[in-house]
């Protein structure tokens, strides 16, 4: 029996058999960090591909039984210490009135993006328990089906990243049109992001009530902003969301590429996700002693031989330290990763104890 795994459960962990993730978020002493992987439920799993061939993307997202099955796959197959609900950040723009398509091989596309005051009139603040009830139903079913095996993570996109898709209308390496929108029509950009923020606060609180033990806010594109522009266009909304949601459940903020804002994000009281572009010791010095950090294995390293993955994963824990730390990737796992390699990463973290 690993001493750090709570088998008796307690009130704050709602009778979880493995609550390492929650312990790490509370800053408790652990003998190894918890591990999960961003985008762990996805195309690198053959079991996911079977369901992907049968049902289109939003059918998968909107059917609680399918969500539950997909969410549990990485728990069963690679043995991660947490489940993250299968959904997408783009269900929020959808609920706010924008059409979102997920096209085979092309990623998301929004045929009628926001470019003007008139476009903004098409955006509504939804009743999340109505428009997104399927997410809450899926969380409740998944929480029940997990039967306390591991904690369940809910999530949402941060306002700047959602603006990127709502304005650009599709994925982009630069999101230049979305950034220009912020710089040339700042009042409109702020109005849109405030609407997203208000929706996201209600959405994440509803997720917590429906069964999410923790929620993660993904600001996947904030790293495209300068430090000053991050402070103007991303940080104010992250702060509002963390302040409103944190009384309900722990929050992890992952603002990819925004290493310069780690101190500001840590100041919100949230745990902070980091990518591989900052040395762990520097991330720790920005975050301070008491903030839980998460990350930061480069997913491309999962193509290395399993023995090398293990060495690299152990080096990562050596650098971050075991306390106040959640082992994860620095961004989502990609479809080309062999399942055995994903498992080698997870096993390496679990074996750290014995090292
Ligand atoms: C930017 C972003 C999106 N969605 C998400 C983000 C933030 C995280 C990040 O930065 O990677 C978040 C997301 N999307 C998905 C999850 C599920 C939970 C998980 O396992 O982490 C999560 C947390 C499922 C998904 N969302 C999507 C898939 C692939 C759909 C498929 O083809 O089966 C999955 C499993 C589709 C999606 N959705 C999005 C894109 C760009 C794409 C296409 C690219 C891709 O295929 O990976 C938008």
Walk me through this protein's architecture.
By secondary structure, the chain is an alpha/beta fold. It has a single domain, classed as TIM Barrel, CATH 3.20.20. It contains 17 helices and 9 strands. The chain has helices spanning 20-26, 46-54, 57-62, 64-77, 91-95, 117-120, 128-131, 133-146, 159-168, 176-184, 186-210, 227-233, 235-245, 262-266, 280-287, 306-320, 339-351; strands at 83-84, 101-103, 107-109, 152-157, 214-219, 251-255, 271-273, 293-297, 325-329. Strands 1-4-5-6-7-8-9 form a 7-stranded parallel β-sheet. Helix 15 links the parallel strand 7 (271-273) and strand 8 (293-297). Helix 10 crosses helix 11. The longest helix is centred in the middle third of the chain and has 25 residues, at 186-210. The chain is globular, with a radius of gyration of 19 Å. The relative contact order is 0.14. It binds coproporphyrinogen III. Keywords: Cytoplasm, Decarboxylase, Lyase, Porphyrin biosynthesis. Its EC number is 4.1.1.37. Pathway: Porphyrin-containing compound metabolism; protoporphyrin-IX biosynthesis; coproporphyrinogen-III from 5-aminolevulinate: step 4/4. It catalyses: uroporphyrinogen III + 4 H(+) = coproporphyrinogen III + 4 CO2. It comes from Ferruginibacter yonginensis.
Provide tags for this entry:
single chain, 355 residues, alpha/beta, TIM Barrel, 7-stranded parallel sheet, 17 helices, 11% strand, globular, disordered N terminus, binds coproporphyrinogen III, cytoplasm
Write the layout of secondary structure elements.
Layout lengths: L19 H7 L19 H9 L2 H6 L1 H14 L5 E2 L6 H5 L5 E3 L3 E3 L7 H4 L7 H4 L1 H14 L5 E6 L1 H10 L7 H9 L1 H25 L3 E6 L7 H7 L1 H11 L5 E5 L6 H5 L4 E3 L6 H8 L5 E5 L8 H15 L4 E5 L9 H13 L4
Parallel strand pairs: 1-4, 4-5, 5-6, 6-7, 7-8, 8-9
Antiparallel strand pairs: 2-3
The structure holds coproporphyrinogen III.
The site of coproporphyrinogen III (CP3) has 22 residues, from strand 3.
